[in-house]
TrEMBL record:
It comes from the Bacteria. InterPro entries: CO_DH_gsu, START-like_dom_sf. It holds the Pfam family COXG. This is Carbon monoxide dehydrogenase. CDD domains: CoxG.
Amino acid sequence: MEMNGEERIAAPRQLVWEALNDPDVLRECIPGCESLEKSSDTEMSAAVRIKIGPVSARFTGDVTLENINAPESYTISGEGKGGIAGFAKGGADVKLVEDGAETVLTYDVKAQVGGKLAQLGSRLIDSTSKKLAGQFFTKFNEVVSAKAAGA
């Protein structure tokens, strides 16, 4: 599965960068996130509960930040296991570009799923993934824009 998009955020790039690296902000914005703990500057572990079609699963896994070019870009990659539901693994290249007082965040995601999830069909997985990404970026935009407005 591949997916890309962009989000215009009413905040300076440095603030957006800090939020992308803040486990508290990410925990608040990731749909179904039960826990997200930072174990180092480049590693986090997470537990997320999601529902894709008829399959509901709790995924646990690790996330790694690579190719870090602060405050412009990084690659985030991870793998989650969902028991009998299967697994998901992949990564995203995230870029931040200043545009006046705003920041344009672009993302390019590549992911794979296996197990029971893979049997659901790519159309359902793609539409659910796009919906979850949309929920994340909408919430992330709200949180970061509110922080910028309050600063």
